[in-house]
Amino acid sequence: MERNLHNLLITGGAGFIGSNLIRHILRATDFTGRIVNVDKLTYAGNLENLAEIRNEFGAGRYRFERADICDQEAMNNLMRKYEIDAVIHLAAESHVDRSIVGPADFITTNIYGTFSLLEAARALWGDRHDVVFHHVSTDEVFGSLGANGYFHESTPYAPRSPYSSSKASSDHLVRAYFHTYRLPVTLSNCSNNYGPYQFPEKLIPLTVLNLLSGKEVPVYGDGKHVRDWLYVADHAAALWTIVRRGTAGESYNVGGENEMENIAVVRLLCDIIAAAKDRPSEPYKKLIAFVKDRPGHDRRYAVNCDKIKRELGWKQSVRFEEGLRSTVQWYLDNSGWVERVKTGEYKKWMEENYTHR
Ligand code: NAD
Ligand code: DAU
After folding, report:
1. Whole domain around residue 23: which residue ranges?
2. CA angle at residue 188 from 186 to 194, to 5 degrees?
3. Which of 20, 230, 284, 322 has the most CB within a 10 Å radius?
4. Which ligand is closest to the CA of 200, given by its number?
5. Ligand 2 pocket list (CB less than 6 A)
């Protein structure tokens, strides 16, 4: 059964996955209703990621509201004002390294913020069944794998960083609202995303930008940690599929089925950039520097996503090398975005270009 949705509240829509999701829903699906993007605009929120969307779609299709998801009153008001019938919750502190240095914001936004959204949804929806609260989570809640095996939906939770613990906690809360209050929720646990508009603190954009500016590329530990990479547009398509057709109370794993050691990813990026610049790749590879390992660094993630394929008919569409090449090309073609993010100018850009919603 497909949900017939009219007004979506997308939290964290100015971030990497959120902005790609909004673009996907408005441009590549048959959704005819309105998206309300609620974002606090932390360092990771960048409205330039949605500049074309704001120009292309009028206020009847797309609205931005600056707010903190922890602000209960603001969330209640937004839910009511826009008669929201689906929440797609992405707003979070998302970077593991930052959670190690300063966990407090992760606890507040990821746990308390999810709680306040659940409360706002419960207050507006009562016992409606034609609505949905979709919680976007991570494969990191399952902990670290050895050389073999995969994360399944039934894998016990074993988070090991402040980030993954805060996401695990929010997942439990979301499930509790289903069991206790019958709030129609769905969850997804996804592997590592890459693609356009990713903030250059994460491995792939950091590597691309460092290689392009001749800076060292830090690889943690022995570089043999394994991640399962998924192109962000494929994640966006998976999220929309679950929101439309996912069964209330269920979680769905989403992954790239594309495991690779970090060092192999970095070397491949050297080759892709060398080819794009028509230069040899050795000088790029010389920039690789093995550095001190991340504390508590999870060794391997690998996601089994048979359930979403079998039950909802989703599958990945972008091969890794192809996705990496177009990602590198995107960073090459968008040097203005890169420069403004690197210098912090993007915050000023937002003030100047975003005088109204
Ligand atoms: P991101 O850091 O790029 O974006 C997060 C967004 O949330 C930003 O726009 C930020 O301004 C906003 N935000 C932060 N705190 C807020 C608050 N208190 N109130 C309102 N807005 C706030 O993150 P991302 O990589 O796009 O990840 C989005 C979601 O997907 C997160 O929930 C993350 O846990 C999950 N996820 C990410 C990945 C990945 O590889 N990036 C994989 C699986 C799941
Ligand atoms: O698995 C899903 C998760 O993927 C998401 O939930 C997180 O929000 C997202 O940030 C990502 O977490 P990771 O910690 O896996 O991503 P990151 O890009 O930070 O690191 C990827 C791998 O690369 C990891 O093994 C650490 C390593 N690394 C990372 C950085 C930033 C390096 O070796 N050097 C680096 O400079």
Report:
1. 7-193+231-255+301-318
2. 145
3. 230
4. 2
5. 94-96, 138-140, 191-192, 202-203, 206, 218-220, 225, 227, 262, 294, 301
